[in-house]
Amino acid sequence: MKDPKSLLAPKVAVGAVVMKDNKVLLVKRNKAPQKGLWAIPGGSVELGETLQAAAEREIREETGLTITAGQPINTFDLIERDARGKIAFHYVIVDLQADYADGDISPADDVSDAGWFGPEEMKNLDLTPATDSLLRKVGVLN
Fold this sequence. Notes:
Elements: E1 11-20, E2 23-29, E3 38-39, E4 42-44, H1 51-63, E5 66-81, E6 87-102, E7 111-117, H2 119-122, H3 129-137
Parallel strand pairs: 1-6
Antiparallel strand pairs: 1-2, 1-4, 2-3, 2-7, 5-6
């Protein structure tokens, strides 16, 4: 029998930096982790799915938009603990560059809002720390 601890492992997830008319696509998270904060859209990678396919599927599910996902541009760990200090979430997130292809924004139930935002508009948003860092890294925010 396997040790139960060996069944616990970080989950792999993707995010996509999608640009349109010099604005970036952001979603307001409606579920943990980081509920209520604005972030680039994304989610978990399913077994047998490439990073690009996962990003394209997740953005379609979360926003209704069709994108073409490109190469990885950032990787980080998202580790959140509960009130007792136990790990509640551990994701290894790979952010990809992506191109907008088609569609109008139609937020799904796992996001409470979504939209295209320029640098000035983002100053009024409560961005996740990782999103803020990534957008600075790729030159969208200064």
